[in-house]
Design goal:
Elements: H1 25-31, E1 33-37, E2 47-51, E3 76-78, H2 86-94, E4 99-104, H3 110-118, E5 121-124, E6 144-149
Parallel strand pairs: 1-2, 1-3, 3-4
Antiparallel strand pairs: 4-6, 5-6
Helix pairs in contact: 2-3
Length: about 170
């Protein structure tokens, strides 16, 4: 898929899983547009030119993170599965293009260490995020962090959501 995906995805089978939670619409708008959403689902609000989703038989870890075969690395958004973040964090660490990722703030894990070593900067969210998924639109019982690398720069529209970042970007 190479057309810009705006808000609504194809109405494919709904996956009721704690790993299929969506970035809220307002936050997705503030993030801007990415080349690829590497771990999406049919209800995602993230705007991207290309998506990888299990519901379409795509494995974002196995697919090339480029917009065209053999092309340069694309800008990547990753709100990966919280049940197994390590492979996603390792892949982000190897990505040569711009990237941003939304994760649970858990500084005691190996996957968080991998992210911290790979990122340009990170910032904690001011409030707990209210993720969206079928049957659950409650606020998370944990803090979240936005982590970025490869030269990605957070849009100014994100400022109301984040504490000042680790490198002073506001």
């Amino acid at each position: 898929m190479t057309t810009l995906s705006l808000f609504q995805r194809d109405p494919v089978s709904e996956v009721d899983s704690t790993d299929a939670q969506n970035t809220p619409r307002e936050l997705a708008l503030a993030l801007g547009v990415f080349g690829i959403d590497v771990c999406t689902n049919p209800r995602s609000h993230i705007r991207s030119f290309k998506t990888f989703m299990l519901e379409h038989g795509q494995d974002g870890l196995a697919e090339p993170w480029t917009l065209s075969p053999g092309g340069p690395a694309a800008s990547v958004w990753c709100n990966g599965p919280y049940s197994d973040p390590l492979p996603w964090c390792e892949r982000l660490a190897r990505h040569t293009g711009p990237w941003a990722a939304l994760w649970k703030l858990d500084t005691t894990t190996r996957w968080f260490d991998v992210l911290m070593r790979a990122c340009d900067a990170w910032a904690c969210f001011r409030d707990r995020i209210t993720f969206e998924r079928p049957g659950n639109c409650g606020t998370a019982n944990f803090s979240s962090v936005l982590v970025w690398g490869g030269g990605w720069v957070p849009p100014l529209e994100l400022a109301p959501y984040l504490w000042p970042s680790s490198n002073g970007v506001r």
